[in-house]
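the two lines:
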Amino acid sequence: MSAAFRLEMRRSRSLILWLAIIALAYGTFLAVFYPVFRDNYKLVDQYLSLFPKELMTAFGMEGSLADPGVFFSTYIGGMLWPILAAIAGIGMATRPSAGDLDRGFLELALSTPLSRVRYMAAAIGGQIVGMAVLAAATVAGIYAAGRIVAAPFDLVGFGLAGAVAWAFGCAIAAVGTLLSVATLNRGLSAGATAGVLIAMYLAAAIARIQPDLAWLGDLSAFRYFQATPIIDEGRFPWGDFSVFGVVAVAAWALSLWTFRRRDLAA
Amino acid sequence: MSMTNVIEAEGLTKWYGSRRGIVEVDFAVAEGEVFGFLGPNGAGKTTTIRLLLGFLRPSAGHAAIFGLDCWAASSTVHTRLAYVSSEPGYLGELTAGEQLDYLGALRGLPRGAWRPMAERLELDPTVHIRKLSHGNRQKIGVVHAFMGDEPLLLMDEPTSGLDPLMQREFLALVAEARAAGRTVFLSSHNLPEVERACDRVGIIREGRLANVSTVGQLLGEHWRSVNLVLEAPPTPGTFELPNVEVVAITGREVHLMVRGDVNPLLARIASLAVRDVAITTPDIEDIFLRLYSAPATQAPAEVTR
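prediction for all of em together
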Protein backbone atom coordinates (compact mmCIF):
# COMPACT_ATOMS: atom_id res chain seq x y z
CA MET A 1 0.00 0.00 0.00
CA SER A 2 1.57 3.26 -1.07
CA ALA A 3 2.31 6.12 1.29
CA ALA A 4 0.03 8.35 -0.77
CA PHE A 5 -2.90 5.94 -0.38
CA ARG A 6 -2.27 5.46 3.35
CA LEU A 7 -2.28 9.20 3.88
CA GLU A 8 -5.41 9.57 1.78
CA MET A 9 -7.18 7.01 3.96
CA ARG A 10 -5.96 8.69 7.10
CA ARG A 11 -7.20 12.07 5.93
CA SER A 12 -10.61 10.66 5.01
CA ARG A 13 -11.12 8.57 8.10
CA SER A 14 -12.68 11.28 10.28
CA LEU A 15 -15.23 12.20 7.65
CA ILE A 16 -16.07 8.58 6.89
CA LEU A 17 -16.14 7.60 10.56
CA TRP A 18 -18.62 10.30 11.54
CA LEU A 19 -20.83 9.71 8.53
CA ALA A 20 -20.75 5.96 9.24
CA ILE A 21 -21.80 6.59 12.83
CA ILE A 22 -24.70 8.72 11.58
CA ALA A 23 -25.66 5.99 9.09
CA LEU A 24 -25.48 3.26 11.73
CA ALA A 25 -27.44 5.28 14.27
CA TYR A 26 -30.11 6.36 11.81
CA GLY A 27 -30.48 2.87 10.35
CA THR A 28 -30.67 1.32 13.81
CA PHE A 29 -33.25 3.84 14.95
CA LEU A 30 -35.47 3.21 11.92
CA ALA A 31 -35.13 -0.56 12.05
CA VAL A 32 -36.18 -0.63 15.69
CA PHE A 33 -39.43 0.99 14.65
CA TYR A 34 -39.93 -1.28 11.65
CA PRO A 35 -42.21 -3.70 13.60
CA VAL A 36 -44.57 -0.80 14.26
CA PHE A 37 -44.96 -0.26 10.52
CA ARG A 38 -45.22 -4.00 9.87
CA ASP A 39 -47.79 -4.73 12.60
CA ASN A 40 -49.89 -1.68 11.80
CA TYR A 41 -49.42 -1.46 8.08
CA LYS A 42 -53.13 -1.04 7.33
CA LEU A 43 -53.38 1.97 9.61
CA VAL A 44 -50.10 3.38 8.33
CA ASP A 45 -51.14 2.94 4.70
CA GLN A 46 -54.49 4.53 5.49
CA TYR A 47 -52.72 7.46 7.14
CA LEU A 48 -50.31 7.92 4.27
CA SER A 49 -53.17 7.84 1.78
CA LEU A 50 -54.30 11.16 3.23
CA PHE A 51 -51.23 12.83 1.73
CA PRO A 52 -51.16 13.86 -1.94
CA LYS A 53 -49.86 11.06 -4.11
CA GLU A 54 -47.38 13.46 -5.70
CA LEU A 55 -45.83 14.21 -2.32
CA MET A 56 -45.43 10.54 -1.54
CA THR A 57 -43.92 9.93 -4.96
CA ALA A 58 -41.52 12.83 -4.58
CA PHE A 59 -40.19 11.24 -1.39
CA GLY A 60 -40.02 7.81 -2.95
CA MET A 61 -42.87 6.30 -0.89
CA GLU A 62 -44.30 4.02 -3.52
CA GLY A 63 -45.92 1.10 -1.74
CA SER A 64 -46.46 -0.08 1.78
CA LEU A 65 -43.88 0.77 4.40
CA ALA A 66 -44.31 -2.74 5.76
CA ASP A 67 -42.53 -3.90 2.63
CA PRO A 68 -38.74 -4.12 3.44
CA GLY A 69 -37.78 -2.80 0.01
CA VAL A 70 -40.10 0.21 0.19
CA PHE A 71 -39.03 0.78 3.80
CA PHE A 72 -35.34 0.86 2.79
CA SER A 73 -35.95 2.96 -0.31
CA THR A 74 -38.07 5.50 1.56
CA TYR A 75 -35.79 6.11 4.51
CA ILE A 76 -32.36 5.14 3.28
CA GLY A 77 -32.16 4.93 -0.49
CA GLY A 78 -34.20 8.04 -1.22
CA MET A 79 -33.21 10.13 1.77
CA LEU A 80 -30.21 9.30 3.94
CA TRP A 81 -27.87 7.73 1.41
CA PRO A 82 -27.94 10.52 -1.22
CA ILE A 83 -27.11 13.03 1.51
CA LEU A 84 -24.29 10.94 3.00
CA ALA A 85 -22.92 9.98 -0.40
CA ALA A 86 -22.97 13.61 -1.51
CA ILE A 87 -21.17 14.84 1.61
CA ALA A 88 -18.55 12.09 1.48
CA GLY A 89 -18.18 12.11 -2.29
CA ILE A 90 -17.83 15.87 -2.61
CA GLY A 91 -15.53 16.10 0.40
CA MET A 92 -13.18 13.36 -0.76
CA ALA A 93 -13.34 14.43 -4.40
CA THR A 94 -12.55 18.11 -4.06
CA ARG A 95 -9.85 17.92 -1.39
CA PRO A 96 -6.91 16.21 -3.20
CA SER A 97 -6.83 18.57 -6.16
CA ALA A 98 -8.52 21.94 -5.58
CA GLY A 99 -8.42 21.78 -1.80
CA ASP A 100 -4.78 20.74 -1.52
CA LEU A 101 -3.72 23.21 -4.17
CA ASP A 102 -5.31 26.03 -2.17
CA ARG A 103 -3.65 25.02 1.07
CA GLY A 104 -0.26 24.44 -0.54
CA PHE A 105 -0.05 20.71 0.16
CA LEU A 106 -0.25 19.65 -3.47
CA GLU A 107 3.11 21.27 -4.28
CA LEU A 108 4.76 19.41 -1.42
CA ALA A 109 3.46 16.02 -2.46
CA LEU A 110 4.08 16.51 -6.17
CA SER A 111 7.60 17.88 -5.73
CA THR A 112 8.59 14.33 -4.78
CA PRO A 113 8.94 11.44 -7.24
CA LEU A 114 5.22 10.79 -6.78
CA SER A 115 3.69 11.34 -10.21
CA ARG A 116 0.47 13.24 -10.72
CA VAL A 117 -1.26 10.09 -11.93
CA ARG A 118 -0.22 8.09 -8.86
CA TYR A 119 -1.24 10.93 -6.55
CA MET A 120 -4.70 11.17 -8.12
CA ALA A 121 -5.03 7.37 -8.34
CA ALA A 122 -4.40 7.19 -4.58
CA ALA A 123 -7.12 9.78 -4.04
CA ILE A 124 -9.53 7.82 -6.24
CA GLY A 125 -8.65 4.64 -4.36
CA GLY A 126 -9.50 6.44 -1.15
CA GLN A 127 -12.86 7.46 -2.55
CA ILE A 128 -13.65 3.88 -3.60
CA VAL A 129 -12.74 2.45 -0.19
CA GLY A 130 -14.35 5.28 1.77
CA MET A 131 -17.59 4.98 -0.14
CA ALA A 132 -17.58 1.19 0.35
CA VAL A 133 -17.14 1.58 4.11
CA LEU A 134 -19.96 4.12 4.23
CA ALA A 135 -22.32 2.00 2.12
CA ALA A 136 -21.57 -1.04 4.28
CA ALA A 137 -22.24 0.92 7.47
CA THR A 138 -25.48 2.29 6.06
CA VAL A 139 -26.80 -1.15 5.17
CA ALA A 140 -25.35 -2.84 8.24
CA GLY A 141 -27.07 -0.49 10.66
CA ILE A 142 -30.60 -1.06 9.41
CA TYR A 143 -30.06 -4.76 8.66
CA ALA A 144 -28.49 -5.71 12.00
CA ALA A 145 -31.00 -3.78 14.08
CA GLY A 146 -33.79 -5.20 11.92
CA ARG A 147 -32.68 -8.72 12.63
CA ILE A 148 -32.69 -8.01 16.36
CA VAL A 149 -36.35 -6.95 16.18
CA ALA A 150 -37.16 -9.92 13.94
CA ALA A 151 -37.70 -7.91 10.79
CA PRO A 152 -37.77 -10.10 7.65
CA PHE A 153 -34.73 -8.39 6.14
CA ASP A 154 -32.82 -10.46 3.64
CA LEU A 155 -29.05 -10.16 3.87
CA VAL A 156 -28.46 -10.76 0.18
CA GLY A 157 -31.07 -8.19 -0.85
CA PHE A 158 -29.70 -5.57 1.50
CA GLY A 159 -26.16 -6.39 0.45
CA LEU A 160 -27.03 -5.97 -3.22
CA ALA A 161 -28.77 -2.67 -2.46
CA GLY A 162 -25.60 -1.62 -0.65
CA ALA A 163 -23.56 -2.47 -3.74
CA VAL A 164 -25.72 -0.25 -5.94
CA ALA A 165 -25.59 2.47 -3.28
CA TRP A 166 -21.79 2.21 -3.37
CA ALA A 167 -21.77 2.55 -7.16
CA PHE A 168 -24.09 5.56 -6.89
CA GLY A 169 -21.74 7.18 -4.36
CA CYS A 170 -18.70 6.45 -6.50
CA ALA A 171 -20.36 8.16 -9.45
CA ILE A 172 -20.91 11.29 -7.33
CA ALA A 173 -17.30 11.22 -6.14
CA ALA A 174 -16.00 10.71 -9.68
CA VAL A 175 -17.97 13.62 -11.11
CA GLY A 176 -16.87 15.78 -8.19
CA THR A 177 -13.27 14.78 -8.84
CA LEU A 178 -13.54 15.69 -12.50
CA LEU A 179 -15.06 19.10 -11.74
CA SER A 180 -12.46 19.75 -9.07
CA VAL A 181 -9.58 18.84 -11.37
CA ALA A 182 -11.05 20.86 -14.23
CA THR A 183 -11.71 24.03 -12.21
CA LEU A 184 -9.15 23.72 -9.38
CA ASN A 185 -11.73 25.61 -7.36
CA ARG A 186 -13.07 23.68 -4.39
CA GLY A 187 -16.11 25.85 -3.73
CA LEU A 188 -17.16 25.90 -7.36
CA SER A 189 -16.73 22.17 -7.92
CA ALA A 190 -18.47 21.25 -4.66
CA GLY A 191 -21.35 23.62 -5.37
CA ALA A 192 -21.72 22.41 -8.94
CA THR A 193 -21.73 18.74 -7.90
CA ALA A 194 -24.31 19.38 -5.18
CA GLY A 195 -26.38 21.49 -7.56
CA VAL A 196 -26.43 18.78 -10.20
CA LEU A 197 -27.48 16.21 -7.59
CA ILE A 198 -30.35 18.38 -6.36
CA ALA A 199 -31.44 19.05 -9.93
CA MET A 200 -31.40 15.32 -10.67
CA TYR A 201 -33.43 14.59 -7.52
CA LEU A 202 -36.04 17.09 -8.63
CA ALA A 203 -35.96 15.75 -12.19
CA ALA A 204 -36.60 12.22 -10.92
CA ALA A 205 -39.52 13.41 -8.78
CA ILE A 206 -41.07 15.45 -11.61
CA ALA A 207 -40.67 12.56 -14.01
CA ARG A 208 -42.62 10.30 -11.67
CA ILE A 209 -45.40 12.83 -11.20
CA GLN A 210 -45.72 14.12 -14.77
CA PRO A 211 -45.93 11.31 -17.32
CA ASP A 212 -45.28 13.73 -20.21
CA LEU A 213 -41.98 14.67 -18.57
CA ALA A 214 -40.96 11.08 -17.92
CA TRP A 215 -37.90 11.55 -20.13
CA LEU A 216 -36.44 13.79 -17.42
CA GLY A 217 -36.11 10.73 -15.23
CA ASP A 218 -33.66 9.15 -17.64
CA LEU A 219 -31.31 12.08 -17.03
CA SER A 220 -31.36 11.56 -13.30
CA ALA A 221 -29.03 9.33 -11.30
CA PHE A 222 -31.93 8.60 -8.94
CA ARG A 223 -33.78 6.87 -11.75
CA TYR A 224 -31.04 4.20 -11.71
CA PHE A 225 -30.92 3.78 -7.93
CA GLN A 226 -34.05 1.73 -7.20
CA ALA A 227 -33.52 -0.40 -4.09
CA THR A 228 -37.07 -1.77 -3.77
CA PRO A 229 -36.91 -4.46 -6.48
CA ILE A 230 -33.41 -5.43 -5.37
CA ILE A 231 -34.48 -6.11 -1.78
CA ASP A 232 -37.92 -7.53 -2.51
CA GLU A 233 -37.02 -9.66 -5.49
CA GLY A 234 -33.28 -10.22 -4.93
CA ARG A 235 -32.74 -9.16 -8.54
CA PHE A 236 -29.48 -7.32 -9.07
CA PRO A 237 -29.91 -4.43 -11.54
CA TRP A 238 -26.83 -4.95 -13.64
CA GLY A 239 -27.94 -2.27 -16.08
CA ASP A 240 -28.34 0.43 -13.43
CA PHE A 241 -25.15 -0.67 -11.71
CA SER A 242 -23.34 -0.44 -15.04
CA VAL A 243 -24.63 3.11 -15.61
CA PHE A 244 -23.04 4.23 -12.35
CA GLY A 245 -19.94 2.20 -13.08
CA VAL A 246 -19.48 3.70 -16.54
CA VAL A 247 -20.02 7.25 -15.24
CA ALA A 248 -17.58 6.69 -12.37
CA VAL A 249 -14.86 5.05 -14.44
CA ALA A 250 -15.19 7.58 -17.27
CA ALA A 251 -15.12 10.58 -14.90
CA TRP A 252 -12.15 9.23 -12.96
CA ALA A 253 -10.26 8.39 -16.16
CA LEU A 254 -10.93 11.88 -17.51
CA SER A 255 -9.83 13.32 -14.17
CA LEU A 256 -6.52 11.46 -14.36
CA TRP A 257 -5.97 12.58 -17.93
CA THR A 258 -6.81 16.20 -17.13
CA PHE A 259 -4.79 16.27 -13.91
CA ARG A 260 -1.73 14.93 -15.68
CA ARG A 261 -1.81 17.60 -18.37
CA ARG A 262 -3.00 20.78 -16.73
CA ASP A 263 -1.18 23.64 -15.03
CA LEU A 264 -1.25 23.38 -11.27
CA ALA A 265 -1.51 26.91 -9.96
CA ALA A 266 -3.95 28.42 -7.47
CA MET B 1 22.54 20.83 -22.63
CA SER B 2 25.91 21.16 -21.02
CA MET B 3 26.74 18.24 -18.74
CA THR B 4 27.96 20.63 -16.06
CA ASN B 5 24.72 22.58 -15.89
CA VAL B 6 22.15 21.17 -13.52
CA ILE B 7 19.46 23.69 -14.42
CA GLU B 8 19.02 25.33 -17.80
CA ALA B 9 16.26 27.72 -18.80
CA GLU B 10 16.10 28.99 -22.37
CA GLY B 11 13.56 31.60 -23.39
CA LEU B 12 11.38 30.39 -20.57
CA THR B 13 8.04 32.16 -20.78
CA LYS B 14 4.76 31.75 -18.97
CA TRP B 15 1.57 33.66 -19.57
CA TYR B 16 -1.53 33.17 -17.45
CA GLY B 17 -4.02 34.07 -20.15
CA SER B 18 -3.12 37.69 -20.90
CA ARG B 19 -1.35 38.19 -17.57
CA ARG B 20 2.42 38.09 -17.49
CA GLY B 21 4.20 35.40 -15.52
CA ILE B 22 7.76 35.43 -16.81
CA VAL B 23 9.08 36.42 -20.22
CA GLU B 24 12.05 34.92 -22.05
CA VAL B 25 14.06 34.03 -18.98
CA ASP B 26 17.47 32.51 -19.71
CA PHE B 27 19.84 31.21 -17.09
CA ALA B 28 21.87 28.17 -16.17
CA VAL B 29 22.97 26.84 -12.82
CA ALA B 30 26.15 24.81 -12.77
CA GLU B 31 26.68 21.66 -10.78
CA GLY B 32 27.76 22.41 -7.23
CA GLU B 33 26.76 26.05 -7.48
CA VAL B 34 24.58 28.01 -5.08
CA PHE B 35 22.41 30.23 -7.24
CA GLY B 36 20.41 33.04 -5.67
CA PHE B 37 17.19 34.19 -7.27
CA LEU B 38 16.08 37.62 -6.20
CA GLY B 39 13.03 39.66 -6.90
CA PRO B 40 10.12 41.33 -5.16
CA ASN B 41 6.63 39.87 -4.90
CA GLY B 42 5.06 39.34 -8.30
CA ALA B 43 8.35 39.52 -10.18
CA GLY B 44 8.07 35.91 -11.31
CA LYS B 45 10.21 33.95 -8.83
CA THR B 46 7.52 31.46 -7.86
CA THR B 47 6.38 31.09 -11.47
CA THR B 48 9.96 30.23 -12.43
CA ILE B 49 10.19 27.64 -9.66
CA ARG B 50 6.84 26.12 -10.61
CA LEU B 51 8.03 25.84 -14.19
CA LEU B 52 11.22 24.13 -12.99
CA LEU B 53 9.14 21.73 -10.92
CA GLY B 54 6.85 20.94 -13.84
CA PHE B 55 3.74 22.28 -12.14
CA LEU B 56 3.26 24.68 -15.03
CA ARG B 57 3.70 24.09 -18.74
CA PRO B 58 5.80 26.81 -20.39
CA SER B 59 4.01 29.07 -22.86
CA ALA B 60 7.31 29.23 -24.73
CA GLY B 61 10.88 28.24 -24.17
CA HIS B 62 12.27 25.32 -22.31
CA ALA B 63 13.54 24.37 -18.89
CA ALA B 64 15.63 21.32 -18.09
CA ILE B 65 17.06 19.85 -14.91
CA PHE B 66 19.84 17.29 -15.28
CA GLY B 67 19.10 17.41 -18.98
CA LEU B 68 15.51 16.29 -18.50
CA ASP B 69 12.59 18.41 -19.61
CA CYS B 70 10.96 19.86 -16.51
CA TRP B 71 7.43 19.45 -17.86
CA ALA B 72 7.60 16.16 -19.72
CA ALA B 73 9.79 14.29 -17.24
CA SER B 74 8.83 15.99 -14.01
CA SER B 75 8.52 12.81 -11.93
CA THR B 76 11.99 11.67 -12.99
CA VAL B 77 13.38 15.14 -12.31
CA HIS B 78 11.84 15.02 -8.83
CA THR B 79 13.83 11.92 -7.94
CA ARG B 80 16.92 14.14 -7.96
CA LEU B 81 15.75 17.21 -6.08
CA ALA B 82 14.33 18.33 -2.78
CA TYR B 83 12.02 21.32 -2.64
CA VAL B 84 11.03 23.82 0.00
CA SER B 85 7.91 25.83 -0.71
CA SER B 86 7.48 29.44 0.39
CA GLU B 87 4.02 28.70 1.77
CA PRO B 88 3.97 24.99 2.55
CA GLY B 89 0.54 23.60 3.32
CA TYR B 90 1.50 21.03 5.90
CA LEU B 91 -1.33 18.97 7.28
CA GLY B 92 -2.27 20.43 10.64
CA GLU B 93 -3.70 17.14 11.86
CA LEU B 94 -0.28 15.45 11.60
CA THR B 95 2.71 15.91 13.87
CA ALA B 96 5.85 17.34 12.33
CA GLY B 97 7.42 13.87 12.49
CA GLU B 98 4.46 12.22 10.76
CA GLN B 99 4.48 14.86 8.04
CA LEU B 100 8.20 14.40 7.47
CA ASP B 101 7.82 10.60 7.45
CA TYR B 102 5.12 10.91 4.79
CA LEU B 103 7.18 13.23 2.60
CA GLY B 104 10.24 11.05 3.23
CA ALA B 105 8.33 7.93 2.17
CA LEU B 106 7.38 9.64 -1.09
CA ARG B 107 11.07 10.39 -1.61
CA GLY B 108 12.05 6.80 -0.81
CA LEU B 109 13.67 7.67 2.52
CA PRO B 110 13.43 5.40 5.56
CA ARG B 111 11.20 6.30 8.52
CA GLY B 112 12.84 8.77 10.86
CA ALA B 113 15.35 9.98 8.26
CA TRP B 114 14.50 13.46 9.46
CA ARG B 115 15.63 12.94 13.07
CA PRO B 116 19.25 14.21 12.86
CA MET B 117 18.20 17.33 11.00
CA ALA B 118 15.22 17.95 13.32
CA GLU B 119 17.55 17.73 16.32
CA ARG B 120 20.00 20.10 14.71
CA LEU B 121 17.26 22.66 14.04
CA GLU B 122 15.60 22.03 17.42
CA LEU B 123 12.29 21.01 15.85
CA ASP B 124 9.95 19.10 18.17
CA PRO B 125 8.58 16.31 15.97
CA THR B 126 5.82 15.31 18.39
CA VAL B 127 3.77 18.51 18.22
CA HIS B 128 0.80 18.72 15.86
CA ILE B 129 1.58 21.10 13.05
CA ARG B 130 -1.51 23.20 13.69
CA LYS B 131 0.01 24.12 17.05
CA LEU B 132 3.40 25.15 15.65
CA SER B 133 4.47 28.75 15.14
CA HIS B 134 5.22 30.01 11.65
CA GLY B 135 8.93 29.75 12.31
CA ASN B 136 8.68 26.15 13.46
CA ARG B 137 6.58 25.26 10.43
CA GLN B 138 9.29 26.77 8.29
CA LYS B 139 11.80 24.52 10.06
CA ILE B 140 9.86 21.52 8.76
CA GLY B 141 10.59 22.74 5.25
CA VAL B 142 14.28 23.11 5.95
CA VAL B 143 14.43 19.67 7.57
CA HIS B 144 12.52 18.27 4.58
CA ALA B 145 15.02 19.79 2.17
CA PHE B 146 18.14 18.61 3.94
CA MET B 147 17.08 15.20 5.27
CA GLY B 148 17.89 13.44 2.00
CA ASP B 149 20.88 13.57 -0.28
CA GLU B 150 19.31 14.65 -3.56
CA PRO B 151 21.85 16.48 -5.69
CA LEU B 152 19.63 19.54 -6.23
CA LEU B 153 17.95 21.69 -3.60
CA LEU B 154 15.23 24.00 -4.87
CA MET B 155 14.21 26.46 -2.19
CA ASP B 156 11.61 29.19 -2.34
CA GLU B 157 12.16 31.67 0.48
CA PRO B 158 13.11 28.96 2.95
CA THR B 159 14.10 31.21 5.84
CA SER B 160 11.09 33.51 6.10
CA GLY B 161 9.97 33.32 9.69
CA LEU B 162 13.16 31.70 10.98
CA ASP B 163 14.93 33.46 13.84
CA PRO B 164 18.49 34.77 13.25
CA LEU B 165 20.09 31.73 14.90
CA MET B 166 18.19 29.36 12.65
CA GLN B 167 18.95 31.53 9.64
CA ARG B 168 22.63 31.14 10.49
CA GLU B 169 22.15 27.38 10.82
CA PHE B 170 20.43 27.38 7.46
CA LEU B 171 23.39 29.15 5.88
CA ALA B 172 25.69 26.55 7.43
CA LEU B 173 23.56 23.80 5.91
CA VAL B 174 23.76 25.46 2.50
CA ALA B 175 27.53 25.71 2.84
CA GLU B 176 27.70 22.01 3.77
CA ALA B 177 25.52 21.12 0.81
CA ARG B 178 27.80 23.08 -1.50
CA ALA B 179 30.85 21.40 0.02
CA ALA B 180 29.21 18.04 -0.67
CA GLY B 181 28.82 19.00 -4.32
CA ARG B 182 25.08 19.59 -4.20
CA THR B 183 23.52 22.33 -6.27
CA VAL B 184 21.27 24.90 -4.61
CA PHE B 185 18.71 27.18 -6.23
CA LEU B 186 17.70 29.68 -3.59
CA SER B 187 14.88 32.13 -4.16
CA SER B 188 14.86 34.74 -1.46
CA HIS B 189 13.88 38.17 -0.25
CA ASN B 190 16.66 38.02 2.28
CA LEU B 191 19.45 39.88 0.52
CA PRO B 192 22.20 39.46 3.12
CA GLU B 193 21.43 35.74 3.10
CA VAL B 194 21.86 35.58 -0.67
CA GLU B 195 25.04 37.63 -0.44
CA ARG B 196 26.49 35.22 2.09
CA ALA B 197 25.27 31.94 0.64
CA CYS B 198 25.32 32.30 -3.12
CA ASP B 199 27.98 32.06 -5.78
CA ARG B 200 25.84 33.79 -8.39
CA VAL B 201 22.69 35.80 -8.29
CA GLY B 202 19.89 36.24 -10.80
CA ILE B 203 17.68 39.25 -10.34
CA ILE B 204 14.22 39.03 -11.85
CA ARG B 205 12.22 42.12 -12.49
CA GLU B 206 8.68 42.29 -13.83
CA GLY B 207 8.98 38.81 -15.29
CA ARG B 208 12.33 39.34 -16.98
CA LEU B 209 15.76 38.44 -15.77
CA ALA B 210 17.42 41.80 -15.19
CA ASN B 211 20.85 40.59 -14.20
CA VAL B 212 22.81 37.38 -13.68
CA SER B 213 26.28 37.60 -12.27
CA THR B 214 28.47 36.37 -9.48
CA VAL B 215 28.03 38.07 -6.16
CA GLY B 216 31.59 39.36 -6.55
CA GLN B 217 30.84 40.81 -9.97
CA LEU B 218 27.61 42.30 -8.76
CA LEU B 219 29.38 44.04 -5.93
CA GLY B 220 32.53 44.77 -7.95
CA GLU B 221 30.89 46.47 -10.87
CA HIS B 222 29.22 49.02 -8.65
CA TRP B 223 30.69 52.20 -7.24
CA ARG B 224 32.33 52.23 -3.86
CA SER B 225 32.71 55.35 -1.86
CA VAL B 226 36.23 56.29 -0.63
CA ASN B 227 36.75 58.97 2.00
CA LEU B 228 40.31 60.09 2.76
CA VAL B 229 41.78 62.43 5.31
CA LEU B 230 45.32 63.35 4.24
CA GLU B 231 48.14 64.98 6.15
CA ALA B 232 48.20 67.75 3.54
CA PRO B 233 45.86 68.89 0.75
CA PRO B 234 46.53 66.88 -2.43
CA THR B 235 48.01 68.51 -5.49
CA PRO B 236 45.63 68.92 -8.44
CA GLY B 237 45.37 65.79 -10.57
CA THR B 238 46.46 63.47 -7.79
CA PHE B 239 43.32 61.35 -8.25
CA GLU B 240 43.00 61.49 -12.01
CA LEU B 241 43.13 57.72 -12.23
CA PRO B 242 41.32 54.99 -14.15
CA ASN B 243 37.99 53.91 -12.55
CA VAL B 244 38.10 56.83 -10.12
CA GLU B 245 35.75 59.78 -9.96
CA VAL B 246 36.48 62.74 -7.71
CA VAL B 247 33.35 63.78 -5.87
CA ALA B 248 34.82 66.50 -3.66
CA ILE B 249 38.15 67.72 -2.29
CA THR B 250 37.88 70.00 0.71
CA GLY B 251 41.31 70.86 2.04
CA ARG B 252 42.75 67.64 3.36
CA GLU B 253 39.49 65.72 3.00
CA VAL B 254 38.89 63.83 -0.21
CA HIS B 255 35.72 62.03 -1.33
CA LEU B 256 36.11 59.68 -4.29
CA MET B 257 34.05 57.04 -6.05
CA VAL B 258 35.74 53.98 -7.50
CA ARG B 259 34.43 51.14 -9.63
CA GLY B 260 36.09 48.00 -10.93
CA ASP B 261 39.82 47.59 -10.42
CA VAL B 262 40.84 49.44 -7.26
CA ASN B 263 44.57 48.79 -7.49
CA PRO B 264 45.56 52.10 -9.18
CA LEU B 265 43.78 54.02 -6.46
CA LEU B 266 45.29 51.93 -3.66
CA ALA B 267 48.76 52.48 -5.13
CA ARG B 268 48.18 56.24 -5.21
CA ILE B 269 46.85 56.28 -1.65
CA ALA B 270 49.91 54.31 -0.52
CA SER B 271 52.13 57.04 -1.90
CA LEU B 272 50.43 59.71 0.16
CA ALA B 273 50.54 60.52 3.85
CA VAL B 274 47.14 59.37 4.99
CA ARG B 275 45.61 60.13 8.37
CA ASP B 276 42.38 58.16 7.84
CA VAL B 277 40.62 56.18 5.17
CA ALA B 278 37.10 54.75 4.89
CA ILE B 279 35.90 52.63 1.97
CA THR B 280 32.21 51.89 1.91
CA THR B 281 31.10 48.92 -0.15
CA PRO B 282 27.49 48.85 -1.21
CA ASP B 283 25.79 45.68 -0.06
CA ILE B 284 23.63 43.63 -2.35
CA GLU B 285 20.57 45.37 -1.01
CA ASP B 286 21.83 48.72 -2.33
CA ILE B 287 22.45 47.14 -5.69
CA PHE B 288 19.09 45.44 -5.70
CA LEU B 289 17.29 48.66 -4.88
CA ARG B 290 19.31 50.51 -7.49
CA LEU B 291 18.37 47.95 -10.13
CA TYR B 292 14.76 48.25 -9.14
CA SER B 293 14.71 52.02 -9.06
CA ALA B 294 15.91 52.18 -12.66
CA PRO B 295 13.12 52.15 -15.23
CA ALA B 296 12.50 48.80 -16.88
CA THR B 297 13.84 48.73 -20.40
CA GLN B 298 11.59 46.12 -21.85
CA ALA B 299 8.74 45.16 -19.58
CA PRO B 300 6.24 47.67 -18.24
CA ALA B 301 4.80 47.02 -14.80
CA GLU B 302 1.62 45.40 -16.06
CA VAL B 303 2.52 43.62 -19.22
CA THR B 304 -0.30 42.18 -21.21
CA ARG B 305 -0.19 40.23 -24.37
